[in-house]
Amino acid sequence: MVADIKNFIIGVLGSLFATFLTTYIIHFEQFEGTFNFKEIWSIVINYTFLIYWMVALLLLIMVRRFIRNRIDKSQTPYPMVLSIGGFHDAEFNAEGHGFKWKAYADVKQWDRSTNEPLDIHVDRVKGPYCTNDFREMKVSRTYWGRYKYKCPKCGYKRILLKNAWTLKSDIGDEIEAGYRDKVNAR
């Protein structure tokens, strides 16, 4: 998709430039040896079709950049320090945002009578994985900045506004919230 849009823009610019040259080549031949910037500028101003297309392309590029920046600013920031953990008390298989996830957590509080975990801290989340065959999804960006997740085997696709780190943070928070809800329900 991105390559198609880039090819379209290059084609439009090429055809506009070729049309401009073939239409106004006579004006360039009438110059008397020296090129004057004012004369060239007057030719460009008279060719309003070229100006409209250039304004439209500039507007398209500016809107694209604005949308991409808004999407990037809405993501969860990466942590400054990553912890290296080896052993975890619990392992979960979760589903969310149209994907499967594997989460590793440490238990913060146990129920003394039933030895059931009451509160956990999700340390690491792996994924996203395909819902059909549990393969890791490949991530790319669309032309407008959204994130496209695609399974390399079955072709399952999802397009979301969130990157993988933001999705992992959301899944970890959902798992922790489920345990906090259990504690509050008692």
In short:
Keywords: Membrane, Transmembrane, Transmembrane helix. By secondary structure, the protein is an alpha+beta fold.
Give a structural overview.
The chain crosses the membrane at residues 7-28, 40-63. Keywords: Membrane, Transmembrane, Transmembrane helix. The chain has 186 residues and is α+β, with helices and mostly antiparallel strands. The chain has two domains: 2-73, no CATH class; 90-185, no CATH class. It is 46% helix and 24% strand. The protein contains four helices and six strands, in the order αααββββββα. The strands form two sheets. Strands 1-2-3 form a three-stranded antiparallel beta sheet, with helices on one face. Strands 4-5-6 form a three-stranded antiparallel beta sheet, with no helix packed on it. Helix 1 runs antiparallel to helix 3. The protein is elongated and about 100 Å long. The mean pLDDT is 85.
